[in-house]
Amino acid sequence: MNWLVKNTIFLFVCMVTLSALVFLYIKGENRLNKSHQQILTSFSRAENLEALLRIDVLKVKNFMLSNYDSIVSTSEGLEQVCQNFRKYTQKLNAQDSMIFRKPIMEYCNYVSKRLIVLERFKSSNAIFRNSYNYLQKLALQKDSNKEMTFIWSALVYSRMHTSDSSVKKRINDMMVEKSDAESSFASLHTLKVLQIKKEIDELGAVMLAEKSDMMLMKLRAEYFQYYEEESKKTARYRSALFGFSVLFFILIILGLIKLLRASSALRYANTNLEHRVQKRTKDLEESNKRVLEQQKTIVSSSKLAAIGEMSGQIAHEMNTPLGVISLAASSLKKKVAVGKYDEDLFEKKLDLILKVTDKLSRIIESVRKLSKGEDGEEHKAVRVMDLIEDAALLCEGCFKKYNIELKTNILINRDEEAICHSTEIEQVLINLFSNAIDAVRWSSKEEKWVMVEVTKENGQICIAVSDSGDGVPEEIQGKIFEPKFSTKSLADGTGFGLALSTQIIEQHGGVLRLDLNKEETTFVFNLSLKHAA
Amino acid sequence: MEDLLLRRRDYILKLVLFVIGQVIGVSVVCAKPLNEPIKPIPSIDFTKRSDEVKLGRMLFEETLLSKDNSISCSSCHDLSRGGADGKSHSVGVNGSVGGINAPSVFNSGLNFRQFWDGRAVSLEDQVDGPVQHPKEMGAKWTGVVERLKQRDDYVKEFNKIYPDGLNKKNIKKAIATFERALLTPNAKFDSFLKGNSKALTSLEKIGYKNFKSYGCISCHQGVNVGGNMYQTMGVMGQYFVDRGGKLTPADLGRFNVTKVESDKHVFRVPSLRNVELTAPYFHDGSVATLEEAVSKMAKYQLGVELSQEDQGSIVKFLKTLTGEAPVIVSKKGKK
Question: Is A129 an 8 Å CB contact of chain B?
Fold first, then answer.
């Protein structure tokens, strides 16, 4: 949970920083920047053109320029500059407009006014020049009269200074006197010249005034001041932007570090997990091994227990014939002591002893066979009937003791052989017989029998052991095959009998089961026939 | 070692002499251009804009621009008659007679203003005048654009040249571009200005001297021999009184534009290039011959009485101002 909270906070901080960045970037953009270069260019151009115009006007005034084309291009340039200025004021927002619009429009209007004046100046100058030249020609003629010379000098004088009214009067007087054709033209020109001279001086003064330069300078200064202020303001935003970008950068680095650490932790956890899984697997394998060993031990100990069980049985079995032998021998000894050598009695009793001894040796042979079986014999071909007979022999005493009949139902060839471990199968049969005997023993039924049925099916031998007991209760039918489960008291049973038998049969590739189709309790298992591979 | 140095010095000397010889030779062959108040027509290359110029010419000769499809620009500014129509007043739609003499379209790009009263600043602006004037083409721009849009060839051409296709602005632009290409270079006087003193006869040279000394050149100067300033008609004499007849609105000249009293009878100074082709003369087209025009100008503008001789020489000089027909016009075989 703590991790989630931390990451959420981190993400939140990142978002806030990002939005701060965007805000500051927008605020930090100097909106004057876009047009700044253009404005500067326009200012420079205006200053240049104004200077050019002034020079040209001076030249024209002093008769040094007769081609007006350059003046035309200069005035067109100024018009263009004013158009640019007007466009600029349109683009300004309300705040900037208040500061700049008025001075720029003032300058532009002043330029327009002056350009109109310029046209009149051009026209007037042409007229003045022509008339002046005319009079000059007249005055400089070889046979010109004194008046002409005087007019001419007056004009020269008036060119250098403003018209003197006394000179004018004198010229007027002279004009009135003369009347010939030449004079009429001369007076025409003189009047014209004097009239236009004043005009040209006025117009020229307007064109040459320094007012425009001053206006431009002021405009430039104000613009720069304003630009500086804007730049300072935006510079503040920009430095804040810089700070936040650094912060953002750091956050990104942190994020990356976190990511790297997380991924390496993940990798480490993965490898760790791998190791742990491997270790666990090893542990499991070991414990599995141990369990298997334990099982083997259990198996062998249960085997030993079974053997213990059986040895009790065997001892009991061996005891009975020994008792018979002892009884017979003592009876004979008694007869010898008395001196009655009854031949029939002696033969009967000796036959009995021999028969019982035979049985005893057979029992011992069985036991030997059983004990031999502990070495893990291979599966061999064994006569089925041998197996059953041996097992029955070992339990004969028990059967007789409890008055239980052992019935057989052999449905196979008597010499049929099965592939198996004879000792182990005998052990199974003994176990089944023992269980059957116990079941009948505890049963209150009148019938007391145990039946062995041997059948052949699908190349397998089926051996079924059934008894007349009360049957296995439904609830424990599955459990009886489990090890340590016993319905008998500890003195009578270890609980391993059926479990062991099941294991043995399974090792033989067969199945030991409780046949529920039969009314009586029937345990059935199968073995491979000799012919089966 | 010394031998090498000597040889190198020899070589350098030879080189220097050769260069000097070349410079002298070249300067002998190529005469220096004269520094006169009149300048020769510049050679401007329009090949990069040949598409626009061609389209402009199509439109210039296009009668669809007029109300009744009878009048095109070339009706009054005839490319084969020096750019004017040879009439004192031009004739527009429905045979209506205009109020003023049509100036030449040749070299009109060199004028600082268009129209006699200088009301149009550029050639593009000038197009508005005739197209919409009731006595000239009598059309409305919306009608013109519609009529042109019916013609697929126009639509295709406009879309090829202009990004926004066929509209009033581009029609004006095309026509103006064509008009700017109507320069008449290589007049005899122009080669004289470029330094070829053999281009003019001695009489013509005298004519130019008189042109300068009498003061004609005060107003008729610059690259277009005029067209770069305004001037009153009748500086030294009452031109309109002496001419007689009613004062027409056209006679008021610049006053119609500025409404300033001193601008009455002030007109744009016309160009004198190709003047021998563009009779009749003056804004009212009242003068039929060049000789009469020169005399009247001398009287009313310069306040002088010209002798026959001087008048003749000036006329001779004016005839040297006729240039070659514009390249695009001559290509089509017209002259």
Answer: yes
Of the residues A64, A65, A68, A117, the best mutation for testing chain B's interface (the one with the most B CB atoms within 10 Å of its CB) is: A68
The set of catalytic residues of B is: 136
Place of tokens 């059948």: A455
**Nearest neighbour of B230 by CB, restricted to A119, A130, A185:** A119
Q: Which residue of B has its CA nearest to A124?
A: B231
Structure tokens at B256: 């119609």
Alpha-carbon gap, residue B162 to B179, rounded angstroms? 18
Provide residues of B within 8 Å CB-CB of chain A: 37-39, 112, 213-215, 217-219, 221-223, 228-232, 235-236, 258, 262, 266, 302-305
- ∠ CA(A210), CA(A216), CA(A222), 5° rounding? 135
Distance from CA of B25 to the nearest CA of A (A): 32
Q: Output the CA torsion A258→A260→A265→A267 (10° steps).
A: 150
User: Which residues of A fall within a CB distance of 8 Å from B213?
Assistant: 133, 137
Cβ–Cβ below 8 Å for B222 and A181: no
Binary contact (B38, A67; C-beta < 8 A): yes
Looking at the complex, report in whole angstroms how far the Cα of residue A150 sits from the nearest Cα belonging to chain B. Answer: 21
Nearest CA in chain B to A69: B222
Picking from A213, A203, A211, the residue whose alpha carbon sits closest to that of residue A58 is A203
CA-based nearest residue to B112, from B215, B36, B19, B221: B221
Chain A interface disruption, residue of B111, B122, B123, B218, most A CBs within 10 A: B218
Sequence-ordered strand ranges (E) for B153-284: 230-232, 266-268
CB proximity A134 to B under 8 Å: yes
Distance of CA A49 to the CA centre of its chain: 68
Option in B112, B215, B228 nearest A130 (CB)? B215
CA-to-CA distance for B209 and B314, rounded, in angstroms? 9
Which residues have a Cβ under 8 Å from the Cβ of A416 and sit 6 or more positions away?
A383, A384, A385, A456, A461, A529, A530
Write the DSSP symbol of residue B72.
-
Here the ipTM equals: 0.86
The alpha carbon of residue A93 is apart from the nearest alpha carbon of chain B, in Å, by 29
Mutate to test the interface with A, among B34, B107, B112 (most CBs of A within 10 A): B112
Q: Read out DSSP for B261-295? A: GGGTTEEEPPP-TTGGGS-SBTTTT-B-SHHHHHH
Question: Residue for token digits 């051996």?
Answer: A463
Bridge partners of residue A418, in order along the sequence: A382, A529
Tokens 């004088």 correspond to A157
pTM greater than the 0.80 cutoff:
no
In order along its 533 residues, chain A shows pLDDT tens digits of 688 888 888 889 889 988 988 888 887 777 777 778 888 889 999 999 999 999 999 999 888 899 999 999 999 999 999 999 888 877 777 666 677 788 888 899 999 999 999 999 999 999 999 988 888 887 777 666 666 666 666 666 655 444 556 666 666 666 555 545 556 777 788 778 878 888 888 898 899 888 888 888 888 888 888 888 888 888 888 888 888 889 889 988 988 998 899 899 999 989 888 899 999 999 998 988 888 888 777 777 776 776 666 677 677 778 878 888 888 888 888 888 888 788 888 888 888 889 888 888 877 887 777 666 555 557 788 888 888 888 888 888 788 888 889 999 988 888 888 888 888 888 889 889 888 988 888 888 888 899 999 998 888 889 999 998 888 888 888 888 887 777 776 556 666 778 888 888 888 888 999 988 888 889 999 888 876 44
* Location of structure tokens 């520094």: B35
